[in-house]
Request: fold
Amino acid sequence: MTNLSTPIEYFKKEAKNLFREVQAHDAEAMARVRRVLKDSVNVSLMRVQHVVAVEYGFLKWEDLIKATAGELHAKISMKKESLLKGKGEKSIAEKGNGHRLKLRVPPPGETPLVSFLRGPLDLPTPPPFNEFADLMDTMTMEEQRQWLDEDARRMGLFRRN
Reply:
C-alpha cells in the first residue's frame, strides 16, 4: 500500500503523475486529458488537477479539496471497483486501464485477513481498515481466529462449543 496519510495526498499524487505523463507526451495520458479538456495544448498542473477531479466525479478540483475524507475514500473505492469490474486483477496491473495502478504484493507471512483489509491494489486504505489490519498483523492466523471468536461471543453473535 502507499503510505499516504490522507486521501487528498492520493489525489495530488495522481495529478502529479498524470502531469508528468502529459509532459512526456504519453498517448494514454493525453487521451485522458482530451476527454475532459477541449484545449489540450499547454496543459498545466492546475488543468491536470481538474482532469483528475472530473474523472473521480467532481465538477472541479476545489470541490474535491472541500470533500470530506469519507467522501474521498468512497470515490477512490468506486473507481477501484469500476476498474475491477469484469477484469482480472492481472490485466489491471498490466494495462492500467488508463491509470498506473499496481497490485500490492503482500509481504511474506501476511495473513489472508490482513491482505483482505489492505486491499489488492496500491491505493490508500481507509484509516479504520488500516488500524484493524495493523492490529491483526501482530497476530498469527490462530490468534486472529480466537480474537474474532471471542469478540463475536462478547457481542452475542454466536456460541461456539
Notes: The mean pLDDT is 79. The CA atoms of residues 78 and 137 lie 26 Å apart. Residues 7-23 form the longest helix (17 residues).
